[in-house]
Amino acid sequence: MTASVQERDLVVIGGGPAGLAAALAAKEDGIDDVLIIERSDELGGILNQCIHNGFGIHLFEKELTGPEYAERFIKDVMKEQIECLTGTVVTGLSREREITAVGQESGLLKIKAKAVVLAMGCRERTRSAIHIPGDRPAGVFTAGTIQQLINLDGYLPGKTVVILGSGDIGLIMARRLTLEGVKVQGVVEIMSYPGGLNRNIAQCLNDFGIPLYLSHTVVEIRGKERVEGVVVAPVDSRRVPILDRSFYVPCDTIVLSVGLIPENELSRMADVRLSSTTSGAYVDENLQTSVDGIFACGNVLHVHDVVDFVTRESWRAGKNAARFIKSGLPQCGIAVKPGKNVRYVVPHMVSGEQDVEFFLRASRPMGRSVLSIQPGLREVRQRIVKPSEMISVTLSADVIAKAKSSGEIRFELDERGTGQ
């Protein structure tokens, strides 16, 4: 027995902060037939387990916890009577915007959508992704799993912990574990600079006396049934471990905070072009992917450091999806490229017909710098630049239009204005 095909205007895949914002924006712009599909049993995504504050500073000018931030948007979704299917997994997506989904209550669904917004978020890298040698005992967790165990399930993972990687989730969990009475032996980071925000280094490590080992990595996990300890070694300029300077750290738990990967399996099914740098989709100024009518926003597009930016970006995706449904979108013929000291820039294509907010990351830490937007479009002075902190800059349509003759815009960073 096959399911009959439903026809919908807009389907948003993912009910986290990105999906909620996109759905509300489309509804506000006149699309009444909006469906959110969320694989968890509740809306809110990862925010539901982020009980620390610090959310909403940019958007609401006040500090909220993750659940408080999510609740504001969930209430609006309910108020607008936007249909939501929770506990439902999307298993297929085609270039023609045909969706296959399955849920315990909804059963098998076939949906043909006029537009689709991808808002599936991201997942954590695991031990196997970074190839840590050693034994295979119990007690190795990702930071997000630890966060769920403590904040939602009420379990402590262990008594003594080493955290590998200085991403924001790992830093926040260093504080959380300490507050629950766990001894955090240290945070080990292979790079020469931290991977998290400055405020998290200060509030989660420095305030609690937790050591941060920069230019170090875990070279071995020891333990038979349970983790008994790890071997830590400094690394050279090529990030190769210096084994004769290694040292042993006893612990019963290791927490991995070693990066996030956008969840783009559905994007690949739909033949959406992906970036080798961000692992997210190539998008134009409308956040439309290489496949007409399929949009991407939030952490499935590129990993954000602040949820307020996710909301802002996703709001635009929802509005542009509504425009696509109602009247279509302009073609974008100006390429956007990262230049000197810039790792990536999103979006990747623009038209010169509307103002655009660009998000970019530096490829290395730098002091006071100048962001130059070529060919000779604008210069923006930056304070201290770090790869962990995203840079946002908005260009007006008339400035972007000046690049039409060259066919590209290039973003470059120069420390203290050198090279200008």
Architecture overview:
This protein has helices spanning 17-28, 57-60, 66-79, 127-130, 143-153, 168-179, 198-205, 265-269, 307-326, 397-401; strands at 5-13, 34-37, 83-85, 88-93, 98-103, 107-118, 122-124, 140-142, 160-164, 183-189, 212-214, 216-222, 229-234, 247-250, 253-256, 260-262, 294-296, 334-338, 342-346, 349-350, 356-362, 369-374, 378-382, 391-395, 408-415. The mean pLDDT is 95. It folds into three domains: 1-124 and 259-329, FAD/NAD(P)-binding domain; 126-258, FAD/NAD(P)-binding domain (3-Layer(bba) Sandwich), CATH 3.50.50; 331-420, no CATH class. The N and C termini lie far apart (67 Å). It contains ten helices and 25 strands. The chain is globular, with a radius of gyration of 22 Å. Helix content is 23%, strand content 31%. The protein is α/β, with parallel strands linked by helices and 420 residues long.
List the helices and strands and how they pair.
Elements lengths: L4 E9 L3 H12 L5 E4 L19 H4 L5 H14 L3 E3 L2 E6 L4 E6 L3 E12 L3 E3 L2 H4 L9 E3 H11 L6 E5 L3 H12 L3 E7 L8 H8 L6 E3 L1 E7 L6 E6 L12 E4 L2 E4 L3 E3 L2 H5 L24 E3 L10 H20 L7 E5 L3 E5 L2 E2 L5 E7 L6 E6 L3 E5 L8 E5 L1 H5 L6 E8 L5
Parallel strand pairs: 1-2, 1-6, 2-3, 6-17, 8-15, 9-10, 9-15, 10-11, 18-25
Antiparallel strand pairs: 4-5, 5-6, 7-16, 12-13, 13-14, 18-20, 19-21, 21-24, 22-23, 22-25
Helix pairs in contact: 1-3, 1-9, 5-6, 6-7
